[in-house]
Recover the amino acids of this structure.
């Protein structure tokens, strides 16, 4: 490596790694108060054709002048010609997204991270436990299951949000139910018009009679919610390695070298965000870790 | 006399990787000139703000000849020693990291054009560094950062371009500082590979070991003699002594990663957390810390922006801030993160410890926190 | 099926009643009756002295508090096999702490609270089974409430 007489050996991938590719916003769908889905198409046609992703992966979205944010890809992996991102306006970048319009361009790097292990669990029962914006990461799982519904056993979506109007993708629920996906929702706050559950996602487990030998749990949502999902899962004797969680951390690079997303030995951007609980267990109940 | 013999002997002795020769100290000047002719920026120790700092060295006289340094916890002083060595003083707070992984670098700029954005990527310039006087521990540090920035799945363009062209001249340590613990981390006081040339500074000559083809090419163009048995013996005796002189130790270094992960709830974290100021000095001085942060700066019209990456530290409050709160709101949790990463989880991530035992974090900590002592305390109470 | 058979069949469908001995089961039957309520019917109201313990068999029942500012606030939605009105079994609370309203056509088993308390006092073995079950119900409700209190999905406070 140190020979002054030879050329650098580095594969210089500057363009794809630190600078984004540009994509056009082709559609903006309001999903709930402060949450939209933006649909993107790369300006570079060949890239658009090459681009593929797996359920659970994310992109780093870049708004010049504002910065980048890690955002899950919320659309169907088998239809990568339009890439959907469901975004909650919480900070610098995401609030700026709220001012974007159809036709605007936005930078994209990705896809990054690990996927929900759907292939591994063909023939199994799948419980999807999502909270709030966490369903964005799991919607591609549902699409993938619907694409090949007979490959999977029973499929249940347990989904919670703050209020009934905060439930994402609610217009799609009936299609999912028509395809034998049981949809159980719950909200934290509701008025008298609400016919459904009040409470948090883990309690939806109380309503289920699961075949625990077969069941796999995929969960994404606030970390406390996931802690209790794990609790309910383990209480039903679902083994540690069949409970999967998607974790969130501050991310700057997406490739395991800015350090920010570390969780013990893991770089969540690269080794995660999807982990089986047995990987996380040693650190899961530590404060401030 | 010396010169004459050399020319004779040169034809007899074939220089290869591993060859050991001696050069007059003044020949180092020749080497510097040669490197500069090859287009290298020659970087070496210089005195800056009363400490050693690495900067451009144009000639032998730029080196801090005759200086020694004294280090303790939260203490660093330079003074004239009773010797004439060029590499007698230990490094200050900075390291070679600042050249390979610059504290700030522009990644790209983007300009608004027809409603879209057009970016100009800041291609890495043709910077060729020759590092002169790299301590063995710092060489290990470079190798550790190589694993972070040059990987199968990711190659950092800035780091890798600079690194591929960098020429490394090591100086072995015959006079370790009191804060050094390289023998615990297996990184010093002598370098055995990974350099182009390594120097051992004796009273009147440099012993030079050749470590690469580039090293051969360089030595071929200066005046050298085969290393005499006498010089080799002196050097080896001094090196022996030097090893003994490294007295700061980490107990059972192999078991540290496991020990740290088994003690994440240890009360000692509270204790050290109460002393640490979260000032980030240790992470900036550390030659292996690699975390960075990235930000945009925009012009007033909002149609031009520049994206810059800069060193960050896990001691910064913003480091783990995210929607819903801060993951590590306390100094205790941030110190724990730093130490368990540096000496523990780093091994799982990159195959070796992130600590080389250079002692910079001990010297530059205003709270006089001593990493070796912290690690040993975490072990003691629970053993 | 006559009313009595219907009642027995309904109570047998409740898993935790299966822990009861035949004698205890019969005792419970004797103080229980079935209620059918239409959608939107109020089953009990906050402040009522009405003292039944209910087990939802079919349908869905909302448990609500009323606030003059916010109107009806949903606390819990009971589904089949859920217990509501548990406060009737505690030693001191003698009035309803919330209202219950059917949000779908529903069917419930109503156990006379006063009689049940009496049975528990007379027969500690039965009392233990009942109280253990109620403790479980309260614990679960408490956990749910705690998580709700955290307002997990709330918008992060500004920066
Ligand atoms: C793998 C992954 C997938 C994700 N998927 C999605 C998704 O699909 N949709 C979605 O909406 N979000 C998603 N997120 C979350 C999203 O990346 C973060 O919320 C991100 O921070 C938003 O960026 P921002 O610039 O808008 O917010 P930021 O400006 O980063 O602010 C976010 C929050 O952090 C706080 N904060 C930031 N910096 C500081 C500081 N220095 N000091 C104190 N507080 C600070 C702010 O107050 C704010 O509450 C995902 C995250 C990860 C890791
Ligand atoms: S350990 Fe010392 S140098 Fe490091 S952050 Fe704490 S006070 Fe600063
Ligand atoms: S986001 Fe940079 S290391 Fe994971």
């Amino acid at each position: 490596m140190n020979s002054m007489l030879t050329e650098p050996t580095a594969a210089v991938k500057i363009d794809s790694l630190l600078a984004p590719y540009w994509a056009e916003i082709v559609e903006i769908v309001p999903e709930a108060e402060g949450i939209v889905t933006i649909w993107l198409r790369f300006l570079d046609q060949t890239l658009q054709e090459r681009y593929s992703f797996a359920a659970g992966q994310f992109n780093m979205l870049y708004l010049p002048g504002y910065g980048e944010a890690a955002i899950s890809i919320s659309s169907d992996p088998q239809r990568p010609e339009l890439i959907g991102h469901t975004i909650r306006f919480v900070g610098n970048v995401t609030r700026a997204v709220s001012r974007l319009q159809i036709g605007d361009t936005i930078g994209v790097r990705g896809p990054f991270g690990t996927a929900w292990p759907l292939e591994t669990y063909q023939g199994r029962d799948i419980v999807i436990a999502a909270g709030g914006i966490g369903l964005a990461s799991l919607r591609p799982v549902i699409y993938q299951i619907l694409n090949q519904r007979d490959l999977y056993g029973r499929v249940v979506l347990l989904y919670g949000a703050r209020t009934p109007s905060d439930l994402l993708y609610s217009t799609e629920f009936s299609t999912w139910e028509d395809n034998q996906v049981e949809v159980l929702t719950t909200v934290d706050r509701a008025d008298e018009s609400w016919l459904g559950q009040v409470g948090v996602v883990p309690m939806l487990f109380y309503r289920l009679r699961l075949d625990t030998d077969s069941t796999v749990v995929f969960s994404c949502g606030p970390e406390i919610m996931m802690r209790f999902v794990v609790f309910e899962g383990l209480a039903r004797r679902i083994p540690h390695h069949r409970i999967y969680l998607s974790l969130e951390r501050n991310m700057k690079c997406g490739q395991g070298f800015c350090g920010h997303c570390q969780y013990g030995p893991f770089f969540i951007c690269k080794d995660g965000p999807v982990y089986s609980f047995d990987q996380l267990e040693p650190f899961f109940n530590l404060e401030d870790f | 006399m010396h010169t004459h013999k050399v020319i004779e002997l040169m034809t007899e002795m074939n220089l290869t990787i591993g060859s050991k020769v001696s050069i007059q100290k003044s020949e180092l000047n020749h080497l510097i000139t040669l490197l500069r002719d090859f287009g290298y920026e020659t970087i070496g120790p210089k005195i800056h703000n009363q400490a050693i700092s690495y900067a451009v060295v144009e000639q032998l006289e730029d080196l801090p000849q005759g200086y020694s340094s004294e280090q303790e916890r939260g203490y660093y002083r330079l003074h004239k020693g009773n010797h004439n060595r060029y590499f007698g003083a230990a490094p200050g707070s900075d390291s070679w990291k600042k050249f390979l992984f610059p504290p700030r670098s522009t990644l790209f700029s983007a300009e608004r054009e027809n409603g879209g954005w057009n970016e100009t990527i800041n291609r890495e310039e043709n910077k060729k560094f020759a590092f002169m006087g790299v301590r063995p521990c710092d060489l290990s540090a470079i190798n550790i950062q190589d694993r972070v920035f040059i990987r199968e799945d990711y190659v950092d363009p800035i780091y890798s371009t600079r690194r591929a062209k960098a020429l490394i001249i090591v100086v072995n340590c015959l006079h370790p500082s009191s804060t050094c613990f390289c023998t615990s981390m297996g990184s010093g006081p002598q370098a055995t590979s990974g350099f182009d040339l390594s120097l051992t500074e004796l009273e009147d000559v440099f012993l030079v070991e050749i470590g690469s083809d580039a090293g051969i090419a360089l030595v071929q163009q200066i005046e050298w003699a085969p290393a005499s048995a006498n010089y080799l013996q002196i050097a080896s005796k001094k090196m022996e002594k030097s090893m003994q002189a490294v007295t700061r130790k980490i107990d059972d270094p192999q078991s540290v990663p496991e020990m740290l992960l088994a003690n994440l709830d240890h009360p000692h974290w509270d204790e050290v957390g109460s002393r640490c100021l979260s000032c980030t000095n240790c992470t900036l001085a550390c030659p292996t810390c690699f975390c960075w942060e990235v930000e945009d700066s925009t012009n007033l019209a909002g149609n031009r922006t520049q994206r810059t990456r800069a060193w960050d530290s896990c001691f910064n409050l913003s480091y783990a801030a995210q929607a819903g709160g801060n993951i590590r709101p306390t100094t205790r949790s941030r110190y724990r993160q730093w130490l368990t990463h540096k000496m523990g989880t780093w091994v799982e991530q990159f195959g070796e410890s992130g600590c080389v035992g250079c002692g910079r974090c001990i010297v530059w900590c205003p709270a006089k926190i001593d990493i070796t002592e912290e690690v040993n305390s975490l072990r003691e109470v629970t053993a | 099926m006559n009313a009595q058979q219907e009642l027995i069949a309904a109570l047998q469908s409740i898993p935790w009643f299966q822990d009861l001995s035949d004698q205890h089961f019969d005792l419970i039957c004797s103080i229980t009756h079935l209620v059918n309520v239409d959608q939107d019917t109020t089953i009990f109201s906050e402040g009522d002295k009405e003292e039944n313990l209910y087990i939802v068999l079919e349908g869905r029942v909302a448990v609500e508090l009323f606030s003059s500012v916010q109107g009806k606030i949903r606390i819990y939605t009971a589904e089949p096999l859920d217990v509501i009105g548990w406060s009737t079994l505690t030693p001191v609370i003698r009035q309803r702490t919330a209202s219950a309203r059917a949000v779908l056509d529903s069917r419930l088993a109503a156990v006379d609270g006063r009689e049940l308390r009496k049975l528990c006092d007379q027969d500690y073995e039965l009392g233990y089974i009942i109280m253990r079950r109620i403790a479980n119900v309260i614990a679960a409700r408490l956990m749910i409430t705690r998580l709700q209190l955290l307002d997990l999905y709330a918008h992060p406070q500004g920066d």
Q: What stands out?
A: Residues 1-16 of chain A have pLDDT under 50 and may be disordered. Residues 135-147 of chain A form the longest helix (13 residues). The longest strand of chain A covers residues 21-32.
